[in-house]
DNA sequence: CCGTTTATTGTCACAAATGACAAAAAATAC
DNA sequence: GTATTTTTTGTCATTTGTGACAATAAACGG
């Protein structure tokens, strides 16, 4: 019988290196040389496991969207039925926990490249919408009387704070910025009950 | 005497095309071919007016930071001494007004590339901080009793909403998202008075 | 008209990225 | 040990990006 396949393991390893490079250099800056160096393999292996450049981008998009969905599902599992918005915010802003800034940076890079790719654009929009939906669910449960408009707005604002945290990461922002963005998210989450 | 110099005009024209390409393809994806095509000039002109690749990036960074500062100063001139936070939010989210989504996208692209360029990183951080400061000034004037922490947090949240609007632009988000993000910013601006 | 300065175009060489294929090495079943 | 399949490496041509220089065209003052 054949030699045991390392396809899954190697593919994951290369995809992770790809993710790192995209987060650091952007989508066009993530050359095969850099990816191979980051992954610690020879360049032809990239083609062997993930295909040509187009295939690699598609694989990365699938990976990022899947990882995003995983985060979303984990949040839903933990907070959809129980837990306060404050706990949700705590979990979202817990640094290092299960949260990977590379994911959002790669998401942004893909979004930039999606301007001429309606299908990718649609997938990214959907993944973002699903994330929003979970936040809305938690907020709506904590504030039954709040109007849907306010719930939606708060969910968008909270998500924007999270997104901005990761987007600012490359310029090494002052530590207070992180605190302030978390506080802003918390304000949005708790202010729903304060004023109708 | 010499032929009249078009340096300023041409430089501006090329820089604008550069900005467009960076917003669409990212910093590494903005090749000289694309820039020249976008600007409607031959490629060697880029070198003639802006220098080599490194010079071009520096020129773009200067341009983006200057444009950002211009927006900041305009805001300060209009709202620092008078005007409500609600009017500020209205101005910030007025589409097409004087606001150019390419600017924020290029800012992000530069930020991504600034990971190995401490000087650029510092300049970007500073431009962002100055923008924040103006928002804080307006909020503090409207809510004299609010603690500085809350003011800072609100300013960060509002800025995050603006940043996210532009960052989502490439994927052509639903119209409600824009409305919701503006509503979130408005909530942050007005919620300061509601609860101490 | 002439000279000077600038704009504009053309062209070359060099480096980097990518795509594609061939070949060697390794591991497992039989 | 042999065959088979997979991994891994090596190497080529093609394309693209960049840098640098030369040459032409144009505008203005004298």
From TrEMBL, chains A, B:
Entry keywords, A to Z: DNA-binding, Repressor, Transcription, Transcription regulation
User: HTH tetR-type domain: which residues?
Assistant: 8-68
Q: Read off the Gene3D superfamilies from this record.
A: Tetracycline Repressor, domain 2
PROSITE patterns reported in the protein's UniProt record: HTH_TETR_2
Cell membrane listed as a keyword: no
Name the DNA-binding segment ranges: 31-50
Entry's InterPro entries?
A: BetI_C (IPR039538), Homeodomain-like_sf (IPR009057), HTH-type_TetR-like_transc_reg (IPR050109), HTH_TetR (IPR001647), Tet_transcr_reg_TetR-rel_C_sf (IPR036271)
Q: Does the keyword Transcription regulation apply?
A: yes
Q: Which GO terms describe its molecular function?
A: DNA-binding transcription factor activity; transcription cis-regulatory region binding
* Protein name per the record: DNA-binding transcriptional regulator, AcrR family
Source organism: Jhaorihella thermophila
According to the entry, what is the taxonomic lineage of the organism?
Bacteria, Pseudomonadati, Pseudomonadota, Alphaproteobacteria, Rhodobacterales
């Amino acid at each position: 019988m054949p030699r045991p396949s390392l396809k899954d393991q190697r593919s994951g390893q290369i995809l992770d290196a790809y993710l790192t490079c995209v987060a650091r250099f952007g989508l066009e800056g993530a050359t095969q040389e850099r990816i191979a160096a980051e992954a610690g393999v020879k360049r032809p292996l990239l083609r062997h496991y993930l295909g040509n450049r187009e295939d690699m981008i598609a694989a990365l998009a699938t990976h990022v969207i899947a990882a995003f969905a995983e985060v979303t599902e984990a949040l839903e599992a933990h907070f959809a039925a129980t837990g306060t918005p404050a706990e949700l915010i705590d979990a979202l802003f817990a640094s290092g926990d299960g949260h990977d800034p590379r994911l959002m940076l790669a998401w942004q890079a893909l979004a930039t490249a999606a301007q001429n790719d309606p299908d990718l654009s649609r997938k990214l929009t959907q993944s973002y919408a699903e994330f929003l939906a979970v936040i809305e669910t938690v907020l709506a449960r904590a504030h039954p009387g709040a109007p849907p408009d306010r719930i939606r707005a708060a969910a968008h604002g909270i998500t924007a704070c999270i997104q901005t945290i990761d987007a600012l990461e490359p310029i090494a922002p002052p530590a207070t910025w992180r605190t302030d963005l978390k506080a802003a998210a918390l304000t949005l989450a708790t202010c729903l009950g304060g004023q109708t």
